[in-house]
Amino acid sequence: MAEIVIRNLRKEFGAFTAVQGSSFTIRDGEFFMLLGPSGCGKTTTLRMIAGLELPTSGQILIDGEDVSQRPASQRDIAMVFQMFALYPHLNVRRNISYPLVSQGMPRAQVQAKVAEVARILGIESILDKPVGGLSGGDRQRVALGRAIVRQPKAFMMDEPLGALDAEFREHMSEELRALHDRMKATTVYVTHDQLEAMQMGDKIVVMNHGVVEQFGTPQDIYDHPATLFVADFIGSPSMNFLAFEGHAAAGATSVSLGDTAMALPELQEAATGSLVLGVRPEHVALSDASPYRGRVIATEYLGTTQIVTLTTAHGQIKARTAASQIAHPGETVGLALNPRTLSLFDATTGRALRTAANAGVHHG
Amino acid sequence: MSAYSITEPSKASKWVAGILVTLYMVITLLPLAWIISTGFKTGPDSISYPPKVIFSPSIEGYVNLFTDRTRATPEQLATMPPPDNFVDEIVQRRGEVVTGPSRFGERFLNSIIIGFGSTALSIVLGTLAAYAFSRFKVPLKDDLLFFILSTRMMPPIAVAIPIFLMYRQLGLSDTHLGMILLYTGVNISLAVWLLKGFIDEIPREYEEAALIDGYTRFQAFRKVVLPQAATGIASTAIFCLIFAWNEYAFAVLLTSGNAQTAPPFIPTIIGVGGQDWPAVAAGATLFLLPVMIFTILLRKHLLRGITFGAVRK
Prior knowledge:
The complex is a heterodimer of chains A (364) and B (313).
Chain A: E1 4-13, E2 16-26, E3 31-35, H1 42-50, E4 57-62, E5 65-66, E6 77-80, H2 92-102, H3 107-121, H4 136-148, E7 154-158, H5 166-183, E8 186-191, H6 194-200, E9 203-208, E10 211-216, H7 218-223, H8 228-233, E11 240-248, E12 254-257, E13 260-263, E14 271-279, E15 284-286, E16 293-301, E17 305-312, E18 315-322, E19 332-337, E20 343-346, E21 351-352, E22 362-363
Parallel strand pairs in A: 3-8, 3-9, 6-7, 7-8
Antiparallel strand pairs in A: 1-2, 1-4, 4-5, 9-10, 10-22, 11-14, 12-13, 14-20, 15-19, 16-17, 16-19, 17-18, 20-21
Chain B: H1 11-38, H2 43-46, H3 60-66, E1 67-71, H4 74-79, H5 86-93, E2 96-101, H6 104-135, H7 141-150, H8 160-170, H9 176-200, H10 204-212, H11 217-228, H12 230-246, H13 249-254, H14 262-265, H15 277-297, H16 299-307
Antiparallel strand pairs in B: 1-2
Helix pairs in contact in B: 1-15, 3-15, 6-9, 6-12, 7-9, 9-12, 10-11, 12-16
């Protein structure tokens, strides 16, 4: 198992820059998520780590060794593809043993390894079947089997659950995470599904337009988004943005939103002009005592909670409240924002201002 | 699951379809049947009027095909020892003696060497080129592909004279190698275009999985892409073989003594001692066999090849 260091990685396809200057470190044994919308460069990044694409510039270090320009076959990495890419002309057993055969391992040893992997994944009964007729889940397990049988330095997974239906995806994601916890293998996992990334990942890199927007633990990324893009991309419903013109001074513990002063974590830098105050729906409470007002326009009942949509002087806002709280459309209510969890963004750069709360967060 | 439903055709339309297919079959197979049966007729039977459909079979045609003969006077025949095999018997009954084997066997072998040789070469080059065009960033790819296709835009025989002169200069005239290269040159455009289509359909992930599993690019090509492309290779091979096997014009022009193939040879049989239709028909029948056998051997792939890519998985 290995640590993977990415330094200023860049990939151009002709005039198009798919990845520009990414840097991050994947620690040994980490379950690492590359998250972003389609076309953001996450798959290209993964393919560069695996050696299926060579970077235009920058470095990839696996266990301290620079492998940037080496072919995939010399990197000792395994990969699970989105469409599984099982060799269709081989049966399950030969699919799983394929990476071992390439190393010239003696047949008896190959058989023993395949049997062991099949036992771990619970696919002993289908070993001699052709891969053509397998169900999605079994294909997934065979693809995993082919990846883990070699005990490589790291696993690359390119949306491995994307081809499964929703119900089964849940089950497989638990299985995957359990497998990872048992093997403690460094895993790089590409997904566009923010829930999947939050559930499974130890660390997440959020990418957009080829740029790393933020790099951190799921908690950091959720609570302290480094940019407006991350704040918007993560969470469902996503973070509320209240846009306003104003001034924020270093050391201040509140900003003026119109005539209301909003308390927030102590600012460590100043900004003037177009600002955006970000707040998660669950940190908005309906409270008549609050001077900041909003008018209810819709409610969405979700069982234990509800989503209340309101209009304010600074745009629309969604609040997640207890389902028991009564809110009628048309009513004007007070809104209390939890000060500890507020983020303040500079609207022109899209960057979150440094505060006492997000001081340790890595920007891209 | 697809949302399409296929309605069971009505009984009447099945009948109509059946009759049409049968008619078509009769029309296409009748000449073949006539050739095959003519091969087993005697000379007079083959040109009798009205034509004979029922006749007593004879292998005279095949004997004539494989032998060179000369007419002998009854006195000469009387001095000869009695025939000790069926060939001599048939020939002597007609007042002829065998002077030696004919060149048909040799010509047939030439056809096999040149036909299968050029097919193999077209497939090897075509597969490699198609793979490169399908997978790699080849500079001027579209122009190159168009150029390859453009070699098909005129009948090959249009360049017969330059090729004739070139081959004479290069010493390739009337050689097996020359004919193999020529037929490969004509077939390669077909092979590259057909195979590129097939290889484009094979997902790249298979090779990428193999690359990651520790195989080199060439190993991945050989062990993963080739088995996948088998249907395409089989159907392309059949098309290439049919062309090279049937080619007549260049064969007449460029070959004579050494590398002559069967197509220019078969018509020359007619000229030997009257119009020997049974021998011609026998030659044509044997000539049909290799392509037929090759096609039957590969038919499973061929059928899959024809529908390849037509069905969304």
